[in-house]
Amino acid sequence: MKRSALFVSMVLLLVLLVGIAGAQDTTIRYFTFSAAPDHLEDLDTIIAAFQEVHPDIAIEVETAPFADYFTLLQAGVASGDAPDVFELNYENFVTYAANGTLMDLSGMVSDDAPFYPRALEAFSYDGQQMALPETFSTVLLFYNADLFDAAGVDYPTAEWTWDDATAAAEAISALGDDTWGLFSPVQFWEFYKKAAQNGECEFLNEDATESL
Predict the structure, then answer these.
(1) Distance CA 11, CA 156 (A)
(2) Beta carbons of 6 and 37 less than 8 angstroms apart
(3) I need a labelling partner for 63 at 20 to 30 A (CA). Which of 123, 146, 160, 175 fits?
(4) In Å, what is the CA distance from 18 to each residue of 83, 102, 103, 179?
(5) Residues 6+ apart with CB under 8 A from 180
(6) Mean pLDDT per segment of 10 residues, for the chain of length 212 residues?
(7) Pairwise CA distance, residues 54 & 1, whole Å
(8) Structural domains in the chain, sorted by start
(9) Any idea of the CA torsion for 193, 63, 14, 2, to the nearest 10 degrees?
């Protein structure tokens, strides 16, 4: 299944429109764009834990291919038949939060809730917690020790800068035409993180209302 990098970067759990309080025999529709078996198994575990506390609430999981997901979601919102809970990537989160589609979850999240603080903070809007992070991932740098040894380059340390990485990559590339010192995806969602890390660019204006 094709996934956007924003899905890799972070998948969100969002509650839509109405809260469900104390209803008997209630069904909650949960919409996801990942039908991969491991993700559905994770959802089964989450749902089972939820239903131990709320046995009168059923969870109905709906899936759609990523290519169709946001079209179907928007159609559901426009027609008044949107799912109760659904997953979004970040660029779509901002749109849905700004247009009033999402429910404010601020009162449902305690100060000691077990969320990674930066992930939780990223999904507040106008001072309101409009989403809860379901999963998130980070970017890792791997290195091939054999190539470092062949080039006579010291292994990376925690003190490394990108200048150090560049110098090592140049030395490794010099081993031969079929040897590459550094590989990185060129999609914008991978590139912008490196650019931001190095202070090379700003993406938003000062009050974060316009992209630059």
Answers:
(1) 31
(2) no
(3) 123
(4) 10, 9, 7, 56
(5) 172, 173
(6) 33 38 72 80 87 88 90 94 89 88 86 81 89 79 95 95 93 94 77 71 73 72
(7) 33
(8) 5-136 (3.40.190.10), 145-197 (no CATH)
(9) 10
